Amino acid sequence: MSPDGSATLHDYGDAADIRSVREQKAAARAGAGAPPRPLNLYARRAQVYPRKVSGRFRSLKWAALLGLLGLYYVLPWVRWDRGPGAPDQAVLVDLNHERGYFFFIEIWPQEVYYLTGLLVLAAVGLFLATSLAGRVWCGYACPQTVWTDLFMWVERRVEGDRGARIRFDKQPWSAGKIGRKMAKHGAWLVIAFLTGGAWIMYFVDAPTVVRDFFAGAASESVYFFVGLFTATTYLLAGMAREQVCTFMCPWPRFQAAMLDEDSLVVTYNRHRGEPRGPHRKGQAWGETGHCIDCKQCVAVCPTGIDIRDGIQLECIGCGLCVDSCNEIMAKVGLPPNLIAFDTERRMAQRVAKEPLTYRLIRPRTVLYFLMLLGVAGLMVVSLATRDDQGVSVLHDRTLFVQLSSGAIQNSYDLKVLNKARATRHFDIAVEGLPGAGIVLVGRSTRPAIRVTVTAPPDGLGEYRLHLRAPAQSVTSPETKIRFVVTSEDGGTTVRESTFRGPKAANR
Amino acid sequence: MPSKSEKDLYTGQATTGHEWDGIQELNTPLPRWWLWLLYATIAWAIVYFILYPAIPGLSGYTKGVLGYSSRVEVEQKIAAARAAQGKFRQGIRDSSLADIRTNDQLLRFALAGGKAAFADNCAPCHGVGGTGNPGGYPSLADDDWLWGGKLEEIHETIRYGVRNEEDDTRISEMPVFGGEEDATLSPEQIADVAEFVLSLSKRSTDSAASARGAPLYKEHCATCHGATGQGDREQGAPRLSDAIWLRDGSKPGIVAQIAKPNMGAMPAWHARLDAETIKMLAVYVHALGGGE
């Protein structure tokens, strides 16, 4: 180690003081030779004090944080003209009026399967990303990570870096300490309010709700949900933090199923690092491993683990330990990436001194990619071909009625969904029953080949029809017929139904 | 709780002492606050017990200090729904029957309201969907009407009923033509008239009998049922020339009806149902399939 490097190492504090959450808990349980204690199923939380770090992955994390928060705040303000009477917010889940808007797409409640499709896409996308690059979602994009990161940044501004915060927490309570704590929690609450409040903008028109909120004119549910999300953001990002990942989130529990020996994960190069230990000036590097056991990887970890223990549930794959270790490696004059985003296979190849290979295309990734493509394709096709009208035909509970002329009559309830923003006329005709005529209740009393109904804009028209056929054309107790509904702009929907008549013996 | 906790050989972690076939469970302690959350939910439950109705007794239950009652809540919601319907009920009240039928909103409301009222009051005799029942309960879904199938006529029939004690009821009576003594027609004559009636709907198989019955029909029946059996709605006399029969349409059935007629009755509804409901019922029945 260079004298310069040795000197700078002292800035980081004594490595013996840095312990991972795991070590702290084990120490608490062991209690230094104490007699066996009754089994305790609960333990105090081991507080994590992550140190500030800079480097490639930290910059990536800042970029992700700014990008995602920016998107989150800007999106509700993007306008999208849908004509009069419709909200002009590009992305809006209008629960009050039972519509979802996403730019040019408008979803009705019965089309909620698009949301299912979106969730499937998100899940498969998550699988693909995980099999390629480990827990990048957890480390960079998960709201829990993003907000925790933001809250930690605030904490560092108010209470100082790791060492300062540990000392600060150990201090007895004083006016100054209370003031600083209040400043921190106050800032957290403001951020929590701003983020929790922003969530409501996705459900109610953003400019209106912002104005109404501060004028006290918003609805009770708006205030309730803003309060709820403020509280949960404050609680989860300020207090619970890594415990959300380790105790609450199901994803860490099964994400390992997506990983294989070719997935990029944050790994410690054990072969190069061990045997670890303090390095004395002038000592040759051949005698000890490259890990100088400075524990800076532990000090920066937001979940308080020691990555040198191997891949573990608590690791969110953020790579801050990589930055931290590289900082140290540069200072002691060693090549970087003792801890790195790397694959199990390359680790083994290094040990065996084989050429390093990285396989991007594997059955697993191909499968996930095809699934992603398949579901996305299905969504696009179904969105592109979806009708702006919906029709449902329900046969009366009464099977059929014989009229005085001997004609057979069946009655139907017809519903026409008009998804357009204008009143539209729909022509209704019936195929499959020669000589049949339609009587539209309220409009006609004589059967006609074709009737026209009017459906309200963005709404549902309900009609009652009688279908009348001469006795001689009813040749079966059950005739398959088709209702053909054609809108004034040519869209056609066909619905199958049945026409019932008497059994042959009774004809 | 197991008695002995041991150290796991591989991880160095304490075990819970549970062991199944040599497999031991590691003790991974939950955070303490998790336990406090459990206690908090228990405390919340106690608060809930105090605030809301909770514990059943032999003759009642604890009412809770908030005085909440789900029944009251339902009643409020029903009242609110009634109030929300007020606009439509007002529309039904103020509109003529014909106007209700041509107003999409009122028509939908009337059909839905009529359907509910029909199921409660009318379906026991006329059947679900108005298909009628054997034994003289006419179908309301076909186009054969005893007392008229226009909206106003249906409305009138529902309001005042048929052959009841009301002054305004629709009433008529078919005379008894048969019997042991002083019969208007002999059994043979009745059989001949029945054969003629069958001929009105082209079902006669004995032209001689039918010819014998023709003058008798003209004398005794045509006044009400019409010369060609077209019926008379003024008197509720059924049409005899079509395929629809209120009662048994076979020859023995017709003979029995001539000899000793059965006549249906229907209660008047104007005193039991409000005016809007009766209007909605009229629109609904008219829309069942045979409205004129």
Walkthrough of the structure:
The complex is a heterodimer of chains A (507) and B (292). Chain A is of the alpha+beta class. Chain A folds into three domains: 1-46 and 260-366, no CATH class; 47-76 and 87-256, no CATH class; 389-506, Immunoglobulins (Immunoglobulin-like). Chain A is built from 17 helices and 15 strands. In chain A, strands 7, 8, 9, 11 and 13 form a five-stranded antiparallel beta sheet that branches. A four-stranded antiparallel beta sheet of chain A has the order 12-10-14-15, with no helix packed on it. Chain A has a three-stranded antiparallel beta sheet with strand order 2-3-4, with no helix packed on it. In chain A, β3 (99-102) and β4 (105-107) form a beta hairpin. The longest helix of chain A has 26 residues, at 175-200. Chain A is elongated. The model of chain A has no long low-confidence stretch (mean pLDDT 88). By secondary structure, chain B is mainly alpha-helical. Among the domains of chain B are: 72-168 and 268-287, Cytochrome Bc1 Complex, Chain D, domain 2 (Orthogonal Bundle), CATH 1.10.760.10; 187-259, Cytochrome Bc1 Complex, Chain D, domain 2 (Orthogonal Bundle), CATH 1.10.760. Chain B contains eleven helices and three strands; from the N terminus they run βββααααααααααα. In chain B, α7 (187-200) crosses α8. In chain B, 29% of the residues are buried. Classes of the chains: A alpha+beta (507), B mainly alpha (292). The interface between A and B is large, with 33 and 41 residues. β1 of chain A pairs parallel with β3 (30-31) of chain B.
